[in-house]
Structures are given as structure tokens and as C-alpha cells.
Predict the structure.
Amino acid sequence: MEPGRHDDDLRNALDLPRVDEARAPPLRSVAHGFPSTVDLPYTSSSRPSQLPGRPPPYTRPATGDGDFGRLPSIAVPPASPAVALEVWGDDADQLAATALRAEQLGFAALYYGESPPGGLNLECWTVLAALARVTTRIRLGPVIANVLPTWRHPALLAHQALTVARLSGGRLDLRTGAGAALRFGRAWWTTPHGVDYPAYDRRLADLTRFLDTLDEARTHARRPADAAASTDTGTTTDRRDSPPPIPITIAATGRRAMTLAATRADCWETSFATAEELDERRRHMDILAAGRAVTCSLEIDGFVAATPVSVDRLLARVRADRQGEDLGPVLSRALTGTPADAAGRIAQLAAAGADQLVVALHDPHDPGALEALAAAVRLVGGP
């Protein structure tokens, strides 16, 4: 998980017990090595009644110990989720090659991480602008655009988004959220770089103000056409084109951020959930949205390879990289196994309410992993 990935106000999460942000044990995204505290389970008492039009809860069959992802076949839902890639790295040529390969393989989107200086990545919006000019179809966006006014003024962030939207021909997904837990955010941004990383209430307020700033920027973002249009009176008038639409994704788990997503976002994202957990979270969002159309995206780790033997080798490498960690919770929430195994999990998550999966492969630049994941997508009816 990238630095700046969301971690909502768990103290205000829907019907959850109070959680001490400073002490809550994080789950870790093995593919990235960064902690997240978004996956504390909902209590059974918090579950709302089934909403009309939503599928019944998915019941995961029992599997043997260590059997990560070899799940039985199930019916494919009418609409398979879009599958996007979560990518990081500081090799510009490699990033361009991965974006072109992802486009060729038919992935819906590629999202690039934003890190503080000296982190995993180059400057996020500069990379997105470059990728916009070498690709033609795949959607692009940040994994999460951090809204930190002492790092980047909200007006500048809005201008960057509008610029990439134009450069890409309207292929930008603007993905944002209230940010990581305080102890992680300050370790990434404040201690090494002096960037103010405020408490949650301020971060949520800053996010709301940024959305207002973006709305204002879009209202005023008009560009003259190449030529002036003549009127019947012989005078000329500038023709101005509207900027391309920019779908907004808000990553949210807590009550207040989910409410913001329900009222302001086109897409709401949650992370690292089983099918049962996703089904429950989606029902909460449906209630908050109160009939407003908000699609659902799930961030998920991916450990996919072409054959059972190559899967075993991959998992051995993961365990070696993450020695001393309990990988069971991570692997049980991931796309893990062969393309057929991953396809089964994708279908289950689609049935639970996922309209999009954002997959963080263990190595997002590995051609074999990209091809294995693309094969899984095709098995569930994707492109």
C-alpha cells in the first residue's frame, strides 16, 4: 500500500467499538510493505438488513489450511468488474512499458502511487502526464492524491488534475481520501520533509475544501477554440469547450468519510476485504447514498501466476520478503493462485458488490504476472 493511502476515522466507523489509532494493530499489504488499519471487521450487530436489488450475502466455503485461493467455481455475475492495476516505481522507461503492456492486455486503468520525496515513486502527476501521452485507451490516475495544503495547494492539485484530464483526452480518474493514520502519515511526511500532516478532522475538512476548489476550477476551466465563430452580425465570439469530465473516487471506511463519498464521489473505494466483508461495507454505502449512484472499488493484493508450480514459487518469495509476519489475513483477502483461482475470487467479489478491482501485484512490472491476471479477467468475461 502506497504512502498516503487512506485510513478513515475508525473511531467514527459504522457501529464499531472505539479504536485507539495509536495502538490499533495494522494489516499490511504484502505487495507494498506499508501498513493499513482500514480492515478492522464490522461487528455482526452493525449489519443492515438486505437492500432491494442487492445479491444475498456470499458464504465462503471452508478451505484447507494454507489453501489460499483454490476456490470452487461459481456462476459469473451479469457484469464483471473492471480491473485496474496499482503501480509504483521510479524507472520512467519501465513505467511507460508497463502502461503500454497493461493497455495491450485490456486492463481498465493504471493508477500510480504518490510518495514523499525519496520514496518509492517519482512525482505522481508528472508521471501521469507522461503516461497520458504514450497511451491511448487505458484510464489513468493516482493511487491516492494526498490533500495536504502545506505540500501542495488545493488550487494546484485541481490544476494538475484538469491538465492531466486534457492531456489524456478525458481518461483521468481522480482518486483521493482523508489519508493514512496519523502516526504513519507524520512518519512519511512530517518528520523527514516538514510537511504538516494534521489530525483526522482537519484532513477531512481539507478534503472537502479541495472538492469545492475542484468544482470551482472546472467551472472556470474553459479554453478558446482554434478559431473564432462568426455571428450573423459579422462580429466574432470565442467558442469555449468544457473540460473533460473527471470521475472522483474517495477511499473511505469511517462514517464521516463514507458520507462524504456518498454525496460527492462517483466511486467509493474500500480495501483488502473478503467477499463477506465487502458485501457488508457495500450495504452500508448503499444506505448512506440513499439512491444516489455511487460505484464500488476494492483495492486488493494480487499473487497470481500461470501455473501451480509458479504460484508456489511466488508465495515462497513473498514469505521470504515478509519473514516474521502472519500472512494468512493478507493472502485470504488477495487474488491468489492461478488465473482460474483468481477468476473464481473475482466473480465472488463482483457478486458481493465490486464494480472495480484495483490490484496491487507483488511485482506490478512482471510481464508474467500481468499476463496471468489478464487471463483471469478474461475467464470472468472481461476484455
Observations:
- DSSP finds eleven helices and 15 strands in the chain.
